[in-house]
Amino acid sequence: MPEFSQVLLLVVAIAIGWSLGRWRRPDEEAHRDDSTAPSYYQGLNFLLHEQPDVAIDSFVNSLEVNRDTLETHLAVGNLLRRKGEVDRAIRIHQNLLARPNLGGDQLHQVHMELAQDYISAGLLDRAERMLKDLVQQSPAWRRTALRHLLSIYQDEKEWDKAIEVGKELVPKKNWLRSGAPVDDDTYRCLAHFYCEKAEQARAVNDLHTARADLKLALQYDRQCVRATMMLGHIELDCGHPQAAIKTLKRVFTQNRLYISEVLEPMHQAYRKRGEELEFTDYLTACYDEYPSSSVLLKLVELIEKQQSSELAEQFLAQQLKRRPTLRGLLQVINYQAPKVTDSGRENLTVLQAMLTELLQEKATYKCDHCGFSGHHLHWLCPTCKHWGRMAPIRGAEGD
Q1: Out of 26, 39, 134, 390, which residue is the most buried by the measure of CB atoms under 10 Å away?
Q2: pLDDT tens, residue by residue, 200-217
Q3: Range ranked top by mean pLDDT from 59-73, 183-197, 236-250
Q4: Full-prediction pTM beyond 0.85?
Q5: Exposed, middle or buried, 57 (CB in 10 Å: 0-12/13-18/19+)?
Q6: Whole-angstrom distance between the N-terminal and C-terminal Cα of the chain?
């Protein structure tokens, strides 16, 4: 067992011992051979002999359940759940619920712990029922229960239920004067839930429903880049390139980091209108305001197509002096390779392969909440489960 867990177990043992001494009745002081103390010292013996699991059972069995010792029992149950011993945690919390001397908020607290046990065990139906009861019966635990319900519905991809719960977590208009907390993360969640519904509608070519869901997403989060990108794609699919351009341009004002994600659909829309020169002007303005490898390479592509390879190469070299990047360097090598001798070309080919492999290994997206990185844009971070926190990586090795 890890040393940290052993320390935690020892702290729990000491806390239980302190509790036994702290709340021993006066008449118990005269009878030190009571039945509880031997069990406690036996638990310490198990702990010292590296039998922590047996020690926990001994400590729990030796400590009476009452209002004063509840927190100790809950701490042990929490420890077991974090260790992955969910069945034992469930038994401890179910044992607490069976005690008639607990009531009110303490009883609701135990219900909350048991619901979390069920979630950890994958018994989501049981957890859902228990959390719904807490929402109805306990004002103190209502928001916590709603958050756990939101997590369950999110994992189960039950977006309508998730939206219903999310709306309960954000302040209604008549709550604003009461000082109800405003939770930006919940607004972001709701926006992405509607985006998920829009994805489903778009998959069956129900573009009317998809549009409606995306507009609702933007009502909850005006900065939802995902919703704007999807609306732009829908306009493009419907043969409305001008509307697609207008929509996709909003991405740059919402969050500049995502400009690289809309370059291709914007190029397609401008090409359909025969306005590639206007696209070049737009990207030039974007690059002047916010230098990006993706925008630079797209500009180089457009200059080469509209003018010449020499001018494109010159432009690339000038911009790399201002902001060198590996992707830009690789493009320089691509331009230079055909111009050098056979021996020099061989060296450049080796360097070309090395840079290509290096860039393929480098993550291109990173979550700004937990630091998770990868090669794909996940709207829901796989690690911290936060929505809309992954974005293209900036810097010499990124965008």
Answers
A1: 390
A2: 999 999 999 999 999 999
A3: 236-250
A4: no
A5: middle
A6: 44
